[in-house]
Structures are given as C-alpha cells and as structure tokens.
Specification:
Elements (H helix, E strand, L loop, with lengths): L6 E4 L7 H6 L1 H7 L3 E4 L3 E3 L9 E7 L5 H15 L2 E6 L3 E3 L5 H9 L17 E6 L3 H6 L3 E5 L6 E5 L2 E4 L9 H5 L4 H9 L3 E5 L11 E2 L2 E6 L5 H16 L5 E4 L8 H12 L4 E4 L17 E2 L2 H11 L5 H12 L5 H16 L1 H17 L6 H14 L14 H15 L7 H12 L7 H23 L27 H14 L4 E2 L10 H8 L5 H14 L5 E3 L2 E3 L2 H14 L9 H22 L10 H14 L5 H31 L3 E5 L20 H9 L9 H6 L1 H16 L1 H6 L1 E5 L1 E3 L5 E7 L4 E7 L21 E4 L9 E3 L5 E2 L4 E2 L1 H4 L5 E5 L1
Parallel strand pairs: 1-2, 1-20, 2-5, 5-14, 7-11, 14-15, 15-16, 17-20
Antiparallel strand pairs: 3-4, 6-13, 8-9, 9-10, 12-13, 18-19, 21-23, 22-25, 23-24, 24-29, 25-28, 26-27, 26-29
Helix pairs in contact: 10-18, 10-24, 11-20, 12-13, 12-14, 12-17, 13-14, 13-17, 14-16, 15-16, 19-21, 19-24, 22-23, 24-27
GO biological process, one term: trehalose biosynthetic process
Protein name: Malto-oligosyltrehalose synthase
GO molecular function: (1,4)-alpha-D-glucan 1-alpha-D-glucosylmutase activity
C-alpha cells in the first residue's frame, strides 16, 4: 500500500475545476505534497457547492471538467509523481429530480428498479417534503397543476420549477384527460393514485418514509449494505482505483451506514490491498477505531482535539470560565446543557426517526410477551438515546460485538443510577432488543431496530453537540470544534503525549488535519483563540469595555434585549478569531469584505443555537437586532471601537501566531499523515462553512513559496503573511519524503523540560534504528512576547533544559529550520538553539 507522506485537500466547484487543479500540481509538488486529496467529484446537483449531494455516482461532474478534465488532472499528477485520494459518499444521494435513480423511484414507486437502492419504508407512499405548505393548501392556492414535463414529455405534477412525474398507471390511456385536469378534487384524487405524497417541508422531521443524512431531507440514505446497490454505486469508483488513476479513498460519514465494517470489508476486497482508505469518523473520549476495520485510520478530528492539550492554559482556563459565567449570569452546567440539546433533537428534529424506533420496540416487545405502556417505553428509549456517550455501536444482524455489549451495559448502569433513570422494566426491554435477546420470531425486527438505533445515535450526537451546544456555549470558541469533548476536562502535555503514543500504535497512517471543509473555524483562528486561556482577565476587561462602547446599539425586544451579554461575548470572540493579521481599522474596503463574511456567520450561529431563532421558525426582530449590532462593529464610522479592538487584539494575535507555528510543527512531525487544507499552508482565519470553503488565492500562495524575504524568514512580515508557516511546511514535508519510515513507524518519545520555563515548551522525539528527530516548540507564551512575535527568543526559555536519553544524546544534528549544525551532548538548552521559535533537529 502506498501511504501518503502528506495530502493537500482541494474543494472542487466554486470555481475550482480539474484543469485549474492540474495547474496547481507543480506548486503542490514543490510544497512537498505526495497526494492531492479531492472533495467529491461525481455529478451532484446543479447548484452544489460541495459535491456531497450526488446525483450520479458513476459520472464525473461535467461542471468541473467531466471525465476528460479528470483524466487530464490525473495525467498531470502522475507525471509529477503525485497520487490522488478521492472523497466518496456511500451513505446518501440527493433527493433531486436531477437524480435519475430517485426520479425513477418517484415515478414507479416500489416497482422501480431502484426502489431498494434507497433506504425507504415501503409500507406507505414515498414522502416528498418539498412543498412550502401542505398539499391541500398549495392546491387551494393554485400552486400545483398537471403539465407535460419538457424533459420527458410525460405528464407531471408541477410545483413552481419542479416536475414530479406521474406513475404510468395513473395517466396512460387517458393522457389528454389528465393534462386537462384543473378541478382541485380531481387533482387531489390523482395525487392519491401516485406512489408518493407531496408534503410540506415542515412535516419532514416527524413524518418521513426514507432515512435522511442527519436532518437534511434533500439527502436520502442509500442501502450500500446490499451487494447489488454497492456494485451500482461503486462502479466508477472501483474502475478509477483499479486503473491506477486513484490511489486512495476517503469514506464520508461511515457511521451512517447500516454495517460500516461489512461495507469497509467489501470496499477493501473490491479496491484491493494497495488502496489507501480512511474514514470520516468522530471518536469519543477513550474511543478507538475497531481493530478489525481494514482501513488506515480516520480523517483526524481527534488530532485537532489533542492539540488543545498543548495550547490551552489549564492553570488559567477556570478564570476564563468564571468571567464567562459572570456575563451569562449563572454557573453553566454543561451536562445539563448537553441534555437539553439532545432532548430537543430527539423530540423535534429527529421526531420521525424516534417514532419509528418506538413503534418497532413496541411491536417486538408485544411479540416477546412483554408490553410496557407506550409512554413508559417512550421514556426509556428517549433516555437511552440521550445517555449514549459515543456516536454509535457497530452491531450487525447477529447482534452486538463484545465491546459494544460491554459499552451498552456501562451506559445502562450509569443511566439507572442517574436522576433521569427510566422505568427499569422498560429500559430492560430496549436493552434486550439491542442485544438481540428476543424470541426467534422477533430477531429480524430486533436487527432492524438495532440498525436504526445505531444510525440515529450518530446524527443525534452530531446535531446536539456540534450544531447546537457549540453554538450556545461560548466560553472558549476554540474548543467548540468538530470532534471536541463538550464536557469540562483538564488539559495537559501528559495527555497529549499519551494520545500521540496511542496514535502511533493504533493508526499511524491516519490523516492529521487541523482545518477541513467542516471545521467550525480555521486552524489559525483556533490557535489565536486558545490564547484567551492565558490572559482571561484581560480578555474579560476588553469585552466589558467593548460592550460599553457599543451599548447604544443594544435593542430591547419583547423577548429580551438583543444582543444579550452572552451574545456579545460570542460576537467579540468570533471577530477576534477571524480578524486578518494586517487589517487596519481605517481600511474601508477590508472592513466591508470582512463584514459580509462575518454577518453570514452570525446569522448561522444564531439559528444553529436554536434559542431565540432557528432555521425552522426565524425570529426576524431578534436576528435583525444582532446583525445590526455586528454590522456596527465593523462600520468605518465606529473608529473608537475599531482602534481599541485592534490595539487590544495585538498581543492575542502575536501569541496566536506562535501557537500556529507550534501546531503546524506538531502536525508535520507527530504520528499520522499531515493533511494541508487548501490555503491553510499560509494563514486560515476562516469561519464555519460556507466561509471555510472559499477559494484560496493560489497565485499569491505560489508566489510566496518562491519569494526570498530580504528581512529573513522570521521577520515580522513573514509571520503576519503566513510565509513562515508555508516555508516550515515545505521544509518538513521535504524531510518526510526523504525519511518516510521515521515518520510512519518511528517511535514517539516525549521529552521533559526542566527549569524556570519548563511549562512553556513541548518537546518530543521520533526515532527508528537509523534516524532521530527532535522537536521543540513554544507554548503558552502570551506574557513573554514583549511586543514582537519575531526573534530572538532565547530569553523566553532562559534557565530551561531538556534532558536527552542515551539514544538521542551525543549525536550531531541539523536544525531543519535554520540549517545550523549542533551537537547538544546529553541535554538541550532551548534558549540557545531556538532563536527564532520552534526547533526541528534531524540527526546527520
């Protein structure tokens, strides 16, 4: 198997085509990339900005260059010696009329060849929740009619620009009569004859006949557990792998599949042993990828979470928490807040999925001779879902694995002893169904229940934590990241080192990302915001002062002030994270550009919180008040605030740039395959999607890599532009290509610092039988930068020493970042070697 030494993620669409990507190959090669890592490239909906809404899994999307453009890009990659990794989407496809399979299912219902391709409950008509109101209401309003579909020539229900085909039996032999229908009663009767029901989008959460991707009705689950469906959806994917055009696959949302292990085994069998395969999978605290999955690892969300152990000041974070809670007006109980978010998801957003589970559980219980009251059973099922601590278990039709059975038992014991313990008998019923301890006649239904339960816990966790709780609680936005642990915890270097040793043992070939198309903010915004934990009182004083300066823009509404104090804490912190390093307070054009991005983020943040407004029922007055407040923050006329904000942000910005360098060095040298998200080789201060999917300025990145800075690589300008970060990546990736075994299988050895500034350094080594690499990087340096991010740095580590074990001592090393040669003996004094920040020493 060809394991990448480094990947470069490119988002196709939004102006990025195969030919443009082919033109970037020389740049990627020079940067040190081994594999281009492509977002989904198969045909998606016409307005897709991301490609995850696939309409044809066996066609390369013409909008980004089609098969010919794809082949040209592959040829350019091969000529340069680079490989290609494709992001594939086996879990779902678009419920769009552009999707020929879905359209066929609409037209022919259960008789369609593709009826079993999608995860549809055929005990009732297919639900199509794409009307603005109920079918009866839109019919009464004259918004629906029967016309000939201009694409097929067949009669169809027309709703605005959408043509929903009529099933042939309802019109063949009386085509003219059907096309002439205008009476509402006749149209309603014709609708009843279809294998589908047009319905309001508002009814989707409670009444849907197909499995969705999370809560997105526009994406229908695909049954890849069926061998024929797998073959139909992977025909082109496997052709590309077998031909050598594609070297690796990234499996999107593996937890959504009915049987992830079974799918991955089939994929491995069909793709062959040489295909590099990773999965998008969020791991809970202490959770690991199952040992028997035939993959190289995850896409690396857990790596992002691990970096917080290095860059968060655990000694001071409680003071930041106290300052935040003073603004909130009360202590925040995160467990209670998570419970509220999960209950909202179960009761509202996933009401239909929950109701299906409840119905199944009741039928199985009755067949098994046990019949708890429905309300009692409902409460037990609800509490078990809310109590589930990980994204899912991996039971199959045969039952739960031993590991999952043990996990379930622990969850049940903890739930039983909690304040929310449900009826013991009802909980036992649900537990036995999940475990398969039911009568023989109920085993099939129990397996269905188990699969549905497992397919719900993941979306429930994701929407509760990532897309609700993390938009409600704002103490430290850098910690509100995909894959992060929402509960209060300690942060320590010991924990980080332990995580890296485990990573080296269990998934050394997994991707190590720091930014993705799904992260809540760019890696450099996160690095900057970590510094709030180093100066919590200073940050709190800033927020209090800024709130006072902008107090006149607070509005009093019927449901309270807008924005509230907790809203402003979030706004100022988000603005601090996204602020460009060189944006001046009087740069009118720059402020306008930032305002557009920032207001889009604010609207999304308010709606995702689901407190005073949301996507279903917007609170226009509240949203307008907060958006007007945010708009005022970036108004060129608000110079008193802007000047104060930029000046106050400066020390956080400097410390954030040092954090950025440190997390970059760690990503490049710790166990795992470093993944560079497009543009993040420089500075990435993006906000949540779609902001993080913007097209980078590639010409500027190429020019910067070729640039010789007369002031030196470590000059202030190089830090502020991202040039330093880019050149560090270039240097280390070149070394990785020269020493792949060291980085892939080399031991991970933590190194302890002693002395006055021991807490301000992280150090470790990578070693194998031949080579040794020593990494030393700064941390928690907010109070030590003295007004400049540039060197010299010696005094920051004065009196600090790192002892070297015999395997590392008395060797000759070259500093990869400066080119200097040194022989440190049995210890290293960071202050004497780290004149410009981090140190990466390779034995020579």
């Amino acid at each position: 198997m060809s394991i990448p030494t480094a990947t470069y993620r490119i988002q196709f669409r939004n102006g990025m085509t195969f030919d443009r990507a082919a033109g970037l190959v020389p740049y990627m090669k020079k940067l040190g990339i081994s594999h281009l890592y492509a977002s989904p490239v198969f045909t998606a909906t016409a307005d897709s900005t991301h490609g995850y809404d696939v309409t044809d899994a066996n066609e390369i999307d013409p909008s980004i260059g089609g098969r010919a453009g794809f082949d040209r890009m592959v040829a350019a990659l091969k000529q340069a010696g680079l490989g290609l990794i494709l992001d594939i989407v086996p879990n779902h496809m678009a419920t769009s009329l552009e999707n020929a399979w879905w359209r066929d299912v609409i037209e022919h219902g259960e008789q369609s060849r593709y009826a079993r391709h999608f995860d549809i409950d055929w005990s009732r008509p297919l639900t199509l929740p794409f009307l603005g109101d109920t079918f009866e209401a839109v019919l009464e309003n004259g918004e629906i009619s029967v016309k000939r579909d201009p694409a097929s020539g067949k009669p169809a229900f027309v709703y605005y620009d959408n043509y929903y085909p009529l099933t042939p039996a309802s019109w063949q032999g009386r085509e003219a009569e059907v096309l002439a229908l205008s009476d509402n009663a006749a149209l309603a009767e014709l609708h009843q004859r279809q294998p589908y029901r047009l319905m309001s989008w508002r009814d989707a959460p409670r009444d849907l006949s197909y499995r969705r991707f999370f809560e997105i009705t526009g994406l229908a689950g695909v049954r890849v557990e069926d061998e024929a469906v797998f073959d139909d959806t992977h025909r082109l994917i496997l052709e590309l792998v077998r031909s050598g055009a594609v070297d690796g696959l990234r499996v999107d949302h593996v937890d959504g599949l009915a049987d992830p292990k079974g799918y991955l085994e089939r994929l491995r069998q069909q793709a062959g042993p040489d295909c590099y395969i990773t999965v998008e999978k969020i791991l809970g605290k202490g959770e690991h990828i199952p040992d028997d999955w035939p993959i190289s690892g995850t896409t690396g969300y857990e790596f992002i979470a691990a970096l917080s152990d290095v860059l968060v000041d655990d000694d001071n974070i409680d003071r930041l928490r106290h300052a935040y809670e003073e603004v909130v007006g009360e202590a925040v109980d995160m467990r209670a807040e998570l419970r509220k978010a999960k209950l909202l998801m179960v009761d509202r957003n996933f009401e239909g999925e929950f109701t299906t589970l409840l119905r199944l559980a009741g039928e199985i219980a009755r067949a098994d001779g046990v019949a708890p009251e429905e309300d009692t059973l409902r409460a037990a099922l609800r509490e078990l879902l809310v109590a589930f601590p990980v994204y899912r278990t991996y039971g199959t039709a045969e039952g739960l694995t031993q590991a999952d059975a043990t996990l379930l038992q622990k969850v049940v014991l903890k739930l039983t002893a909690s304040d929310h313990a449900p009826d013991a008998q009802a909980l036992d019923v649900v537990t036995r169904i999940l475990s398969g301890e039911v009568a023989e006649a109920a085993r099939h239904d129990a397996a269905t229940f188990r699969t549905r339960f497992q397919q719900l816990t993941g979306p429930l966790m994701a929407k509760s934590v990532e897309d609700t709780l993390f938009f409600r609680q704002h103490m430290e936005l850098a910690l509100n990241e995909v894959g992060a642990e929402p509960m209060r915890r300690t942060f320590s270097l010991t924990r980080f080192h332990d995580e890296m040793k485990t990573r080296r043992e269990r998934q050394p070939d997994a991707l190590s990302g720091t930014s993705t198309h799904d992260t809540k903010r760019g890696e450099d915004a996160r690095a900057r915001l970590y510094t709030l934990t180093e100066a919590p009182e200073r940050w709190a004083e800033c927020v209090a002062r800024w709130r006072q300066m902008n107090q006149t823009k607070v509005v009093f509404l019927n449901d309270g002030t807008a924005p509230k104090g907790v809203d402003t804490w979030m706004l100022y912190q988000a603005l601090a994270g996204v602020w460009p390093t060189t944006l001046a307070p009087d740069d009118t054009a720059g402020l306008a550009e930032l305002e557009t991005r920032f207001l889009d983020f604010v609207e999304k943040a308010l709606r995702e919180a689901k407190l005073r407004t949301d996507w279903v029922d917007t609170n226009d007055a509240y949203e307008k008040a907060v958006l007007d407040y945010a708009r005022h923050l970036l108004s060129p006329d608000n110079q008193d605030f802007l000047q104060d904000f930029v000046a106050s942000l400066a020390p956080f910005m400097r410390a954030g740039l040092v954090n950025s360098l440190t997390q970059t060095v760690i990503k490049l040298t710790a166990p795992g395959v470093p993944d560079i998200y497009q543009g993040s080789e420089a500075l990435n201060f993006s906000l949540v999607d779609p902001d993080n999917r913007r097209d980078p300025d590639f010409p500027a990145l190429e020019q910067m890599l070729d640039h010789e800075n007369p002031g030196g690589l470590y000059a202030v300008e190089s830090w502020l532009s991202g040039e330093l970060k880019q050149h560090v990546i270039h240097n280390v990736l070149t070394l990785r290509q020269q020493n792949p075994a060291l980085f892939r299988r080399g031991d991970y050895l933590p190194l302890a610092a002693q002395g006055e500034h021991a807490d301000n350094v992280i150090a470790y080594a990578r070693t194998d039988s031949r080579d040794a690499l020593i990494v030393i990087a700064p941390r928690l340096v907010f109070s030590a930068l003295d007004g400049s991010v540039a060197g010299p740095h010696a005094e920051r580590w004065a009196g600090t020493s790192i002892a070297l074990p015999p395997a590392l001592a008395n060797r000759r090393y070259r500093d990869l970042l400066t080119g200097e040669t040194l022989e440190p003996g049995d210890h290293i004094d960071p202050g004497s070697v780290a004149r410009n920040g981090a140190v990466i020493l390779i034995s020579v």
